[in-house]
Design goal:
Blueprint (H helix, E strand, L loop, with lengths): L2 H11 L1 H26 L8 H26 L16 H13 L12
Helix pairs in contact: 1-2, 2-3, 3-4
């Protein structure tokens, strides 16, 4: 359970891990765009809406993750030795924060197959 917190903190301090995270995020974004195109016909050349929608979802995830890590830091989180000082937030807390972040996205984010 503490692995996610430790990985996030390590990535914040290690440029190569941060770069890998960006590459992974871009690959995931491209796969999501391919699925949107293949299954729903979204993403015609020149249509920026799918990319912007996926980017906003990714931003919501990053915001939720940063908030989750800050919650852990406020609770005492995980020490540099990996020992818990007090109970860190659970994964379901991250899921709750992600739901809140997605709910905060503008309603205009909705994509339709007709223009």
């Amino acid at each position: 359970m503490h692995g996610g917190l430790l990985r996030t903190r390590l990535a914040e301090r290690t440029p190569s891990m941060g770069a890998h995270g960006l590459q992974f995020c871009e690959a995931t974004t491209q796969e999501a765009l391919a699925i949107l195109h293949r299954r729903f016909g979204l993403g015609a050349p020149g249509d920026l809406r799918p990319r912007l929608a996926v980017d906003m979802l990714v931003a919501a995830f990053h915001g939720a993750l940063a908030s989750w890590v800050a919650q852990a830091d406020a609770a005492g989180g995980v020490s540099g030795t990996g020992r818990t000082r007090s109970e860190p937030p659970h994964r379901h807390d991250l899921a709750d924060r992600l739901r809140e972040a997605v709910a905060a996205l503008p309603a205009s984010l909705a994509l339709t197959t007709s223009r």
